[in-house]
Amino acid sequence: MVFFGDLPSPASIFSTYASLAGTVMMIKPMIHTIIPQPVHNFVVSYIKSLVGSRSSTLTLVIMDMNKTERNGMSRQNELYYAAQAYLSSKISPDASKLKMTRDPNNKNVNLYPSEGEVISDVYKGIELKWRYLAGSKKTSTVMDGGVDDETVNWECFELSFDKKHKDLVVKSYVPYVEKKAEVIKNKRRIIKMHSYSTYSLRWESVNFEHPSTFDTMAMTHKLKRSVMEDLDRFIKRKDYYKKVGKAWKRGYLLYGPPGTGKSSLVAAMANHLKFDIYDLQLASVKGDASLRNLLLATKNSSILLVEDIDCSVDLPTRLQPATPTYGPYGASEGSTPLTLSGLLNCIDGLWSSCGDERIVIFTTNNKEKLDPALLRPGRMDMHIYLGHCSFEGFKTLASNYLGLSQDNDDTHRLYPDIKRLIDGEVLTPAQVAEELMKNEDADVALEGLVKVLKRKRSESEKCDDESKKMKILEEGEEDNLTSRRPEQSRVE
Ligand SMILES: Nc1ncnc2c1ncn2[C@@H]1O[C@H](COP(=O)(O)OP(=O)(O)OP(=O)(O)O)[C@@H](O)[C@H]1O
């Protein structure tokens, strides 16, 4: 029991406090004078470490430095971005301050925890706390006699939990966060198209907004289905590739005449998988060494595209000697020039084994011109031929451009005529698309298409007649020659 009568008076409390504070004020400078500063620091940090070691909390720091290194590569901690995406789905309704971003051309805004905000999470009964922190740091590098000052911005997430759960958090919770983040990122993902800049010597990217999808592609249903199924199977088979000891990579060769949809199919594949595209212009690559570096700077889950592989650059093969590259003053730059074997080795070897979910696509108008090394089994897993427009392809295009149903063969009165005229190699899908775009009125656009089809058919029939006549003439010449030959022999 406490009685008010036992408590000291306010005046005596105040005088005790004042004398204590006075004593501390007197002792503090004495301690600093008696104990040298380094010893003082050591004692303080020792006491702190003793207190710290007794704490049962472990904090993992997931840092990200937005620092661009001298070789042009940006150092990125993938775990940081996974945490950022994951936490955006965990924000408490009570949060008082949030960071808000919107990527260019993205419909949705993204909300992230702001500085100091704590987010609680529970995983398999373990309580975890996340905290976001940010700041900047000045660094100085001494180079060539001068000092290069640079400000590095850093951001981090701190993840704190009871020490005894360290293994479970590192081995199970962190992969769980990464998986969840992948799903979230895929939902909001903006596909990027990366091109290598010879000016900045790095990949530069823009948002990829090609509208092509498998629905809009003028291809037979069978071909569409087989490409889509192949892609879907590839994505699901991470464990399978690991088990059979193969890099998780798939190669596609798209070939066919100009305007048959090779580039459109690449876009449809990227949109289907939500994969970025790295557009590799071989002409801008100096040699095998720089090719290796720039391929290693590409991200996982992406498509490496080499368009017009037959004519993009004159690649020396294994048998041809490679001419060394020369600098502006004629001196060798010390790099081996780009070779076909360098390209293929890099794609098959180092690059594909350093990453996951790699897709490589080569396109060409002339498959027969390609080096056999490119066509070797196991190199390009699927060869896809895109040809002239079929009636099935036309129906897809008429649905895209004129909004006509593609379910029947007689959606429009002109469909039977088109079906009859379009068969054979008459028009490419690009030519059909061009005709359909000329008028929004389906009657006018389709009449225009019928006219073009008739003209093309009669032109090709004329051509056929001409070539038949030529053949007959040539055969006649040949007969005359052969019938004269015995005579000639005989004269001889
Ligand atoms: N199969 C197709 N399905 C849908 N649209 C197509 C198809 N083929 C061509 N097109 C249309 O024609 C245009 C040109 O096609 P695309 O660039 O994809 O052809 P390509 O085969 O890559 O041509 P190139 O060999 O000249 O690069 C596209 O923008 C698209 O509108």
Model description:
The chain is an alpha/beta fold. 20% of the residues are buried. The protein is built from 14 helices and 13 strands. The protein folds into three domains: 57-190, no CATH class; 202-385, Rossmann fold (3-Layer(aba) Sandwich), CATH 3.40.50.300; 402-472. It has a seven-stranded mixed beta sheet. A four-stranded antiparallel beta sheet has the order 1-6-5-4, with helices on one face. Mean pLDDT is 80; it is low at 1-5, 68-73, 324-334 and 481-492.
List keywords for this structure.
3 domains, binds adenosine-5'-triphosphate, Rossmann fold, 4-stranded antiparallel beta sheet, elongated, alpha/beta, 492 residues, disordered C terminus
SSE topology sketch:
Blueprint: H1 10-34, H2 37-53, E1 57-65, H3 78-88, E2 98-101, E3 110-113, E4 118-123, E5 126-143, E6 146-162, H4 166-188, E7 192-197, E8 202-207, H5 221-236, H6 238-243, E9 249-255, H7 262-273, E10 276-279, H8 288-296, E11 302-306, H9 340-353, E12 358-364, H10 372-375, E13 382-385, H11 391-402, H12 415-422, H13 429-436, H14 442-491
Parallel strand pairs: 7-10, 9-12, 9-13, 10-11, 11-12
Antiparallel strand pairs: 1-6, 2-3, 4-5, 5-6, 7-8
The chain binds adenosine-5'-triphosphate.
